[in-house]
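Team,

Forwarding the record for the chain on the shared tracking sheet. I've put the sequence and predicted structure together so nobody has to dig through attachments.
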Amino acid sequence: MVLTDDELIEMAEYMVEKRATVRQAASAFGVSKSGVHSAVTRRLNLIDIGLAAEVRKLLDENLEARAKRGGIALREKLRGGLRV
């Protein structure tokens, strides 16, 4: 499914307002995660550069949070706290 420009803007605004992840936006709009990511990182720059910058900042924050969670999980695993 290819998003129209209006749908893309709606999805980007949803992500910024709800602080939504790519996965959450994909679920809400019925699009694949890769489709959301591609649309907001490539096409959105051509449509609304200001909104694209806001989404980029959100994506960076989400990536940093994911990295921290992964580091915590690994530390716990190595300590024997998690059973995998």
